[in-house]
């Protein structure tokens, strides 16, 4: 742990650092000092043992790619939504149950890798996600809002779900039925 602390202290001094790859280093935590790297565009923490991210993560305003695959995360800090240049977020293979409420506001996000987590719901802000965003929800079979059967169809189906009248009025299980109807329009709509 002492080695990691001194490593992060030294890294915090590299103010112009743009790419940081700390993949597969058995790291258990990410200290706040990492969030001082204002010019960081790529951060790779794949394959560590990180269970929690610094609340100050949103200070990495230039971040374009964040790879957190294969860690022990159960949540992401809400400040992640402040990383307005983020294009790729890879959190596959963690234990996430929910995502930051304003994640859908990340207008430059083009790839969202969420496979093999424990997500129960997606934030309603996903209705504002870019149309062309690729999203992978494989293995999140417990997803209820929107239902997994609908969400696995991609971002357009997710956006339709959160824009649906049933969701907007909060009819609970009826929203799931409505979502299925949104995903598979009746023959009448196809004519």
Dominant shape: elongated
> Terminal Cα separation, in Å?
65 Å
The DSSP helix count reads: 6
The low-confidence parts are 172-191
Strands of the widest sheet, in order across it, are: 1-2-3-4-5-6
Descriptive notes:
It is a single chain. The protein is built from 6 helices and 6 strands, in the order H-E-E-E-E-E-E-H-H-H-H-H. It has helices spanning 2-11, 148-151, 155-163, 165-168, 173-183, 187-190, and strands at 19-21, 42-44, 65-67, 88-90, 111-113, 134-136. It has a 6-stranded parallel sheet, with no helix packed on it. The radius of gyration is 18 Å and the shape is elongated.
Secondary structure blueprint with pairings:
Layout: H1 2-11, E1 19-21, E2 42-44, E3 65-67, E4 88-90, E5 111-113, E6 134-136, H2 148-151, H3 155-163, H4 165-168, H5 173-183, H6 187-190
Parallel strand pairs: 1-2, 2-3, 3-4, 4-5, 5-6
Can I get a quick summary?
This protein has 191 residues and is of the alpha/beta class.
What keyword list fits this structure?
six-stranded parallel sheet; 191 residues; 6 helices; 22% helix; alpha/beta; single chain; disordered C terminus
């Amino acid at each position: 742990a002492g080695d990691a602390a001194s490593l992060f202290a030294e890294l915090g001094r590299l103010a112009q650092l743009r790419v940081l790859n700390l993949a597969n280093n058995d790291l258990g935590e990410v200290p706040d000092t990492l969030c001082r790297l204002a010019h960081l565009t790529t951060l790779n923490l794949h394959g560590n043992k990180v269970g929690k991210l610094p609340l100050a993560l949103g200070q990495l305003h230039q971040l374009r790619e964040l790879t957190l695959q294969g860690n022990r995360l159960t949540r992401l800090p809400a400040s992640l939504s402040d990383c307005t240049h983020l294009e790729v977020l890879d959190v596959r293979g963690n234990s996430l149950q929910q995502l930051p409420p304003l994640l859908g506001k990340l207008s430059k996000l083009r790839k969202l890798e969420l496979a093999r987590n424990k997500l129960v719901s997606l934030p309603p802000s996903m209705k504002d996600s870019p149309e062309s965003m690729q999203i992978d929800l494989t293995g999140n079979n417990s997803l209820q809002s929107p239902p997994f059967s609908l969400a696995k169809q991609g971002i357009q189906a997710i956006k339709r779900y959160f824009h649906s009248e049933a969701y907007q009025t909060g009819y609970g299980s009826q929203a799931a039925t409505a979502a299925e109807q949104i995903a598979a329009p009746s023959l009448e709509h196809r004519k």
